[in-house]
Specification:
three-stranded antiparallel beta sheet, mainly alpha, single chain, elongated
C-alpha cells in the first residue's frame, strides 16, 4: 500500500527492511502526499543501508506544541503574558471572536518533521484571503518560528525548517501626538476614573497594561517612584519609574481615601479586579473620535516620549524611562533626537559668514 485518504488528509503505509511504517503525510493534495511518501520511503531505505542518520522521532506537531508550552525552561524565562499570547495564537482565548483565525485552524496535526515552509505559505494565503494586514500575518509567523526554533533546540527536529523565513514588509506605523489643548478638551469629556488614568499616564508614560492594573503596592512612597516586579514588565526585570511630587501626592491622598483597595482603579464589575485594557482603550478612542481626534491610548505614551526627546534626553535614558527591553524599541524617536542635537549645535556656533539676503526680482521665471 502506498498512500490512502482518511478524512481530508492522505496517510502513508509501506514496508522497508521488513518494518512497517505508517502515519499522516499532513497533506490534503494527493500529488504532494505522494511526493512526501516517496521522499520518506527513500530516506528510510538509506537509513536501513546505513547511509543516513536514523529517523527516531515520531512526535506529532500538537504533541510538540504541548511540550513547548509546558517546558520548565520556557516557563521560567518568559512572562505569563507572553505565554498567554503563545497559547492564544495557536488556540484562541476565552473570548475568541467568531471567525477569527488561529494556528490550529491552519496547521493540522501531523508528524513534526512535516512542518515546513509550506505551512508559512498556507498561513499567508489564508490571512490574505481574509484581508488581514501584514502585521497580523507576521505575528502568526513569528509565533510559529519561535515554536520550530524551540523544537530544533530540544532536538525534536534535526534543524529549524523556518530559520530562513523573512517577514512581510509592514507599512511604517504613524503615531499620533496629542497637544495640550486637545488633552484639555478630551479630559473634559471623560468619566472621572478614565480622566484620572489619562492624567496620570500623561505624566509617567507607562504602558496601558501597567496603568490599568496599577496596584498600591507598586507605588513606592519612600523612594518616590513606581516599582514594578519582573512579572509586571515586558522586559522581565524590576523597573523603577520616577514620580513627580505632584503625582506622588495625588496617590498619597487617594491611598488614604481608599485604605483597603488593592488596585488604584478597581473595576465595579464583580468578575473583574480592575478595568481591562480593551475597555480602557476602546472608551478612550470613542471619546477622542467624538471631539474629532484620531488617536489611541498609546498616543499618550508616544507623546510623552516625544516631548522628552525634544527636550534633549538621549535615547538610552529615554529607553530606561519607557522601560524598553532594548534600544531598538526606542529608535522610533531617533529623528526627534537628531533634530534636537542639530538645533542645540546651531545655538553654540557663531557663523563666520552669513547667507546673503534674497531679493525678490519682479518678472523672474
Amino acid at each position: 500500500m502506498a498512500i490512502y485518504k482518511r478524512n481530508n488528509t492522505y496517510w502513508y503505509d509501506f514496508r522497508v527492511a521488513k518494518s512497517r511504517h505508517r502515519g499522516s503525510t499532513g497533506e490534503v493534495n494527493k500529488r504532494k502526499a505522494q511526493a512526501f511518501h516517496d521522499d520518506l520511503q527513500a530516506r528510510l531505505k538509506r537509513v536501513a543501508l546505513g547511509l543516513e542518520v536514523t529517523i527516531t522521532n515520531t512526535i506529532t506537531i500538537y504533541d510538540a506544541y504541548e511540550k513547548y508550552l509546558t517546558d520548565p525552561e520556557l516557563v521560567a524565562n518568559v512572562r505569563a503574558s507572553s505565554l498567554y499570547i503563545k497559547r492564544t495564537s495557536w488556540e484562541g482565548g476565552d473570548k475568541r471572536k467568531q471567525g477569527s483565525l488561529v494556528l490550529k485552524d491552519i496547521i493540522k496535526d501531523a508528524p513534526l518533521h512535516t512542518l515546513g515552509e509550506k505551512h508559512v505559505e498556507i498561513i499567508r494565503a489564508e490571512c490574505i484571503q481574509r484581508n488581514e494586514q501584514n502585521r497580523s500575518i507576521n505575528n502568526r509567523i513569528t509565533q510559529l518560528k519561535a515554536f520550530t526554533k524551540w523544537c530544533a533546540r530540544k532536538k525534536h527536529l534535526l534543524f529549524d525548517p523556518l530559520a530562513q523565513i523573512v517577514k512581510l514588509d509592514e507599512p511604517e506605523q504613524k503615531h499620533k501626538l496629542i497637544s495640550d489643548d486637545d488633552l484639555d478638551n478630551l479630559l473634559a469629556t471623560l468619566p472621572t476614573w478614565l480622566r484620572e488614568i489619562v492624567w496620570i499616564d500623561w505624566q509617567v508614560g507607562i504602558r496601558l497594561s501597567n496603568i490599568t492594573a496599577l496596584r498600591y503596592d507598586q507605588i513606592n512612597f519612600e523612594n518616590e517612584c513606581f516599582e514594578f516586579a519582573p512579572d509586571d514588565m515586558k522586559k522581565g526585570k524590576t523597573t523603577y519609574i520616577d514620580l513627580e511630587p505632584e503625582v506622588l501626592e495625588w496617590f498619597r491622598v487617594r491611598r488614604q481615601a481608599h485604605p483597603y483597595e488593592t488596585y488604584v482603579w478597581p473595576s465595579p464589575y464583580k468578575k473583574r479586579e480592575h478595568y481591562t485594557r480593551e475597555h480602557v482603550t476602546n472608551l478612550f478612542s470613542q471619546h477622542a473620535r467624538a471631539i474629532g481626534l484620531e488617536c489611541t491610548f498609546h498616543s499618550i505614551r508616544h507623546t510623552f516620549a516625544t516631548r522628552w526627546a525634544e527636550s534633549g534626553m538621549d535615547l538610552p535614558s529615554l529607553g530606561k524611562l519607557l522601560s524598553h527591553k532594548n534600544l531598538a524599541s526606542t529608535q522610533i524617536y531617533v529623528h526627534v533626537e537628531d533634530l534636537h542635537a542639530q538645533r542645540q549645535a546651531k545655538k553654540k556656533v557663531v557663523l563666520q559668514r552669513k547667507a546673503p539676503s534674497l531679493r525678490l526680482v519682479q518678472g523672474a521665471s
